[in-house]
Specification:
CATH topology of the largest domain: Cathepsin D, subunit A, domain 1
CATH class of the largest domain: Mainly Beta
Oligomer: single chain
CATH architecture of the largest domain: Beta Barrel
Strand content: 15-25%
Strand order of the largest sheet: 2-3-10-4-7-6
Number of helices: 8
Distance between the termini: 89 Å
Order of helices and strands: HHHHHEEEEHEEEEHEEHE
CATH superfamily of the largest domain: Acid Proteases
Number of domains: 2
Length: about 300
């Protein structure tokens, strides 16, 4: 490449570098990971091309014994400004990665709270009031109802101690819903405050016969299911306890493990309670309580 061609190409690349640098603030303002990552790659590419052309032109100038100090300093200034914009994109991407990792960690903590280890299940089963028991050498029976969410049948666990309701990412994908609210929040943990992105969805829960509907606002958890529970084998369980005679359950699945995609909190539990007295047996027997999802159609 001749000096004239190399110099022209260098000026063009320096102009391109200037335009690319000016776009940084606007791209960062949109806070979208992929465009920011692409912009960082573009900056690096153009900087590299400027450096290569600069070496070619500088060699030709030095060959003619020209003083390149001022010329080189001008290019250094432009490259230095572009480098600072590369650092801005790196810092944004690093911070975004940190926030995403914190969100995943927060969701893991939340999920572990909702799905305690086996040794802890015995302590919490009496807090649930749909059909619960602590059976020797077996898993706890969780308070689960089968409902239809926007037309899709799934299981919902009632957690009367939870302040909010939660829904799995898989169910949201099946429903093809968009969040009614999405925001970054600081969540107070035991030792620190964490930043987490929350997506909240408005859904309609129906009983299987369509006689009862409940609007629910739930927070998405990025899991394919919120819980995998052992099949309680309701017919056998009911036959083993005389105080459950006449109780029927609307979950007749025979698989060994059953997925739960929704957790309903205390607010929803209050709305589905009925005046029917619970069926209560001895200390370790299951407790059955009728909910509005189970009421017969009138």
């Amino acid at each position: 490449m001749s000096e004239t061609n190399a110099s022209t190409a260098l000026e063009t690349k320096l102009f391109q570098l200037q335009l690319t640098t000016k776009r940084t603030d606007g791209i960062l303002a949109k806070s979208e990971e992929e465009p920011i990552a692409r912009h960082q790659g573009t900056l690096r590419t153009v900087i590299g091309e400027v450096e290569n052309l600069r070496l070619t032109v500088e060699a030709e100038k030095l060959g003619r014994k020209e003083d390149t100090t001022e010329w080189s300093e001008e290019i250094d200034t432009k490259i230095s400004e572009a480098d600072s914009h590369v650092r801005l994109t790196k810092e944004w991407l690093a911070e975004n990665k940190r926030k995403l990792e914190e969100m995943e960690n927060d969701e893991k903590i939340k999920f572990e709270r909702l799905n305690p280890p086996r040794s802890a299940k015995r302590d919490i089963t009496r807090l649930f009031v749909i059909l619960t028991t602590t059976r020797p050498k077996s898993e706890a029976v969780f308070p689960v109802v089968v409902v239809e969410v926007n037309g899709i049948r799934c299981r919902a666990l009632i957690d009367s101690g939870a302040g909010s309701s939660y829904v799995s990412a898989k169910l949201i994908d099946l429903l093809k819903l968009k969040p009614s609210q999405s925001q970054i929040k600081n969540i107070d943990m035991l030792m620190a405050s964490k930043t987490s992105k929350l997506e909240i969805y408005d859904m309609k829960f129906d009983s299987l016969d369509g006689s009862f509907s409940l609007p629910v606002r739930a927070t998405k958890v990025n899991k394919s299911e919120l819980l995998l529970i052992d099949n309680p084998k309701y017919p056998k369980l009911i036959n083993q306890h005389p105080h459950l005679t006449g109780v029927t359950m609307n979950d007749d699945d025979v698989k060994d493990t059953l997925p739960v995609h929704v957790i309903l909190g205390s607010g929803e539990y209050a709305k589905i309670k009925t005046q029917t007295r619970p069926r209560i047996g001895d200390e370790k027997a299951p407790i059955a309580e009728l909910t509005k999802f189970d009421l017969p159609r009138r």
